[in-house]
Design a protein that fits this description.
The complex is a heterodimer.
Chain A (H helix, E strand, L loop, with lengths): L4 E4 L3 H10 L3 E4 L5 H6 L7 E4 L8 E3 L5 E4 L4 H5 L2 H6 L1 H9 L3 H6 L2 H6 L5 H4 L41 H7 L3 E6 L2 E6 H4 L18 E7 L7 E7 L10 E10 L2 E10 L6 E2 L1 H7 L6 H12 L10 H19 L14
Parallel strand pairs in A: 1-3, 2-3
Antiparallel strand pairs in A: 4-5, 5-8, 6-7, 6-8, 9-10, 10-11, 11-12
Chain B lengths: L21 E7 L2 E7 L5 H8 L18 E4 L2 E4 L12 E3 L12 H8 L9 H14 L5 H7 L10 H13 L8
Parallel strand pairs in B: 1-5
Antiparallel strand pairs in B: 1-2, 3-4, 3-5
The chains are: A alpha+beta, B alpha+beta.
């Protein structure tokens, strides 16, 4: 780890000001990702600004009747919050599918949005990586790429976004509340993370001085028909090879409203609105689900070791939509997200 | 003959100045401890290297194995992935604070009774994690215990007996056992 200084932020505005004044400042909240990256010399901040004492821990009703998740509420406190369990069980399931109880007790909601890829080459400072060292090349293209992206990739980067929580937030159409030097603004979740393009060093669209203060969940009900299906190399405590957040509103057997987002397949949580449109108004049958799945992977591209993900994603989408339609997944059921 | 020994005399770049330290007060197992620490000292290193509390183990040092699990304000965390300075004022419990040799914590006793370890290196982390699990009160079944203990690896593969030990305390009719 490099030498750095440490200070505590005294307020949101002060934190934004200090970050704007010095680009070498890095925010720290739960610390579970940035400290790991600092130990690997991937992140080398000269100064850490500790956000943990800012008043951003609350989980409370949002003005539109939705739910506001404070940026500093932990992943565990969020997953087990009674309102999240009752009204947003998809988010409960996605959070519990990720990491371990210890990490979920530390990691914050804001931090979850900013976690970096687990691409092996990004972590290995001895190898070229355009995300870590812009212009140095991508070692994953043509290298070992079993865990890498199949959708929205570029010639510069095929890394995936590692979060489970963010896949559910994408499906639930969350908005991110942000504070910067120019005041507050909201960012639609689909616009928060970005595709690699020719600038894979940027994971998200925020300006350097901006700070996430909360995540808002809209006042919509997907609590009856949802599924977070996570497929991975072991049943617990592993990143997704493919994960699917599926949420439906049904009128009898007809799909009134549909949400579909994937994890482990792209540089950002991959919500597919075209596939959602294909589902709407259709009967909730396997045939309908297959058409949506085919649409999602129609632009997918394999890179060798990860080519299996195309078929896996297709089948996972069908299974998750079936589970959602059947209404077989429940909040706080800590295994249903991965059982075969 | 005098041999030049300093870096400068050897024509090398001067060594960076010693890191700035600050006073950090940690409340560990009920006792306030004052330490002079560099900011990058993890809570784990503070416990082991500065306080001689070597019960908490360093396994991977990357939050993947759970050997460093301690309780902060009653919640289990990986002490390798937090800085000691970030825990100023927090109430920290390590395996040394759970019981005494004459009066083991029920989980410690259950680990002995169920032969829930082989080499023992992961055991303090397993026990602290299990204390956190019992406090959380979410895991009820064997499968749920296994899922909620997945952040603690055991290279000896003592998982079966670890789960049995936790189950015994979880299902103990004497609620005192689950203190």
């Amino acid at each position: 780890m490099n030498s750095f200084t440490y200070t505590r932020a005294s307020g949101v505005e002060a934190a934004v000001r200090e970050k704007a004044a010095d680009n070498a400042v890095k925010f720290i909240a739960g610390g579970t990702n940035i400290l790991d990256l600092m130990k690997e010399n991937v992140e080398r901040p000269s100064r850490l600004l500790d956000l943990n004492h800012l008043p951003l821990k609350a989980i409370e009703a949002a003005p539109d009747g939705g739910l506001r998740l404070g940026a500093l509420a932990t992943n565990a406190d969020t997953a087990w919050h009674p309102e999240v369990q009752k009204r947003y069980p998809l988010l409960n399931q996605a959070i519990l599918a990720g990491a371990s109880p210890q990490l979920r007790n530390m990691a914050t909601n804001g931090g979850n949005l900013f976690q970096r890829t687990r691409c092996y080459y990004f972590y290995d400072t001895a190898t070229p990586c355009n995300k870590r060292e812009p212009g140095s090349g991508c070692s994953a293209i043509g290298g070992y790429n079993r865990i890498h992206a199949i959708l929205g990739t570029s010639e510069q980067c095929i890394a995936t976004h590692p979060s489970d929580m963010c896949v559910a937030l994408a499906a639930l159409k969350a908005t991110v509340r942000v504070s910067g030097q120019n005041g507050e603004r909201t960012v639609k979740f689909e616009n928060f993370h970005r595709l690699p393009g020719d600038a894979p060093e940027f994971d998200h669209t925020l300006a350097p001085d901006e700070l996430v203060t909360a995540i808002d969940l809209p006042n919509e009900d997907f609590s009856q028909h949802f599924s977070y299906l996570k497929l991975r190399d072991r049943q617990s405590y592993a990143f997704a090879l493919v994960s699917v957040a599926a949420a439906l509103q049904l009128d009898g057997n007809t799909i009134k409203e549909a949400r579909l987002a994937l994890g482990g397949v792209a540089h950002k949580p991959w919500r597919d609105q075209q596939a959602e449109e294909l589902l709407k108004g259709q009967p909730a049958t396997e045939d309908t689900f297959r058409k949506a799945a085919a649409a999602v992977v129609s632009s997918a591209r394999g890179y060798g070791h990860n080519t299996f993900k195309i078929e896996l994603a297709k089948r996972a989408i069908v299974r998750a939509l079936k589970q959602a339609a059947e209404g077989t997944q429940h909040a706080s059921d800590i295994f249903t997200n991965s059982n075969p | 003959m005098n041999t030049p020994t300093t870096q400068a005399a050897l024509g090398q770049a001067a060594i960076a100045p010693p890191p700035p330290t600050s006073t950090v007060t940690l409340k560990i197992n009920g006792v306030e401890r004052h330490l002079q620490l560099a900011p990058w000292t993890s809570l784990l290193d503070a416990l082991r290297e500065y306080l001689d509390l070597t019960g908490t183990k360093k396994g991977c040092d990357h939050g993947q194995c759970g050997a460093c699990t301690v309780l902060v304000d009653g919640k289990r965390i990986n002490s390798c992935l937090t800085l000691a300075v970030m825990q100023e004022g927090a109430d920290i419990t390590t395996v040394e604070g759970l019981g005494t040799e004459d009066n083991l914590h029920p989980l410690q006793q259950a680990f002995v009774d169920h032969d829930a370890f082989q080499c023992g290196y992961c055991t303090p982390g397993q026990i602290c994690s299990a204390v956190g699990l019992l406090t959380e009160g979410k895991a009820k079944t064997t499968a749920e215990i296994r899922e909620m203990m997945s952040g603690n690896l055991c290279r000896c593969g003592a998982y079966t007996n670890i789960v049995s030990a936790i189950e015994e305390v979880l299902h103990s009719k004497n609620s005192e056992l689950r203190r």
